[in-house]
Amino acid sequence: MPSTKRRNTHSVEASLWQIRDTRPELGIVLLSQHVETRHSVELVSRGRFGYMLKDRVFDVDDFFDALQRVAAGGSALDPEVVARLIGGRRAGDPLASLSARERKVLALMAEGRTNVGIARRLWLTDRTVETHVSSILAKLGLANSEEDHRRVLAVLLYLNRP
User: Fold this and answer.
1) pLDDT in tens, the chain (162 residues)
2) pLDDT of residue 3
3) Burial state string for 127-154 with b = 16 or more CB within 10 A and e = fewer than 16
4) What is the pTM of this model?
5) Measured between alpha carbons, how far is 53 from 34 in angstroms, rounded to an integer?
6) What is the C-alpha separation between 48 and 16, in angstroms, rounded?
C-alpha cells in the first residue's frame, strides 16, 4: 500500500510521500511560507530532500547551496526550522525526552487512536505500539495508579506542552 494511504497528512505532504515512494532517487526541495517541523524532519532524514522557507530564495547563495546538497543526495533544512526544533526542546518540556517515533505515537493517541489504530497508521505491529506507549508513559513519569488514567494524562501533557 502506498505511503499516502498510511499517512494522514495534507495533500502536499501526501504528494511528497508518494513521490518519495515511487522515485526515491529524485531530489526534492519544498519551499514553504510556514515553518512546519513535524514532517520536515522525517523527510529530510531520508536524504535527497530540502525544506526551505520561501524567503530563503532571496539569499541566492544559501538557496543554491541547498539545491546542490539535495541534488548530491544530501539534505537541506531551513535554519529557521532548525531553530524552532532546537527551541522546542527546552528544559522543562516534558516531551523533550521522547523520540520522534514516540512523539508521533503520542500525537495519534491525542487524536483518540487505539493501539491498533496507531499500529495501522504507522505500519507497526500492535506489540511495537504497546512498547512505545509504555516507554512514553515511563519517560513522562506516569506511574501505574488505580485513580488516574495514564494514557489520558500523557495526552494532556502533549496538548498542554509549552
Assistant:
1) 344 444 444 677 778 878 888 988 889 888 887 767 666 677 777 788 888 888 777 778 888 888 998 898 888 887 777 666 655 555 567 788 887 788 889 999 998 899 999 999 989 899 999 999 999 999 999 988 888 899 999 989 888 876
2) 43
3) ebbeebbebbbebbebeeeeeeebeeeb
4) 0.47
5) 7
6) 12
| Cell 501505574, located at residue | 144
Three cell numbers, residue 90: 527546552
DSSP 52: E
Indicate the SS3 state at residue 50.
strand
Helix or strand or coil: residue 29?
strand
Three-state SS across 54-112?
HHHHHCHHHHHHHHHHHHCCCEEECHHHHHHHHHCCCCCCCCCCCCHHHHHHHHHHHCC
Instruction: State the virtual CA torsion across 105, 111, 117, 118 in degrees, nearest 10.
Output: -10
Q: What share of the chain is helix, strand, coil (3-state, %, to 5)?
A: 55, 10, 35
Residue 158 and residue 153: Cα distance in Å, rounded? 9
Residue linked to cell 519551499: 31
* Residue matched to cell numbers 501526501: 14
Q: Which three cell numbers stand for residue 28?
A: 526534492
Q: Identify residue 140 by its one-letter amino acid code.
A: L
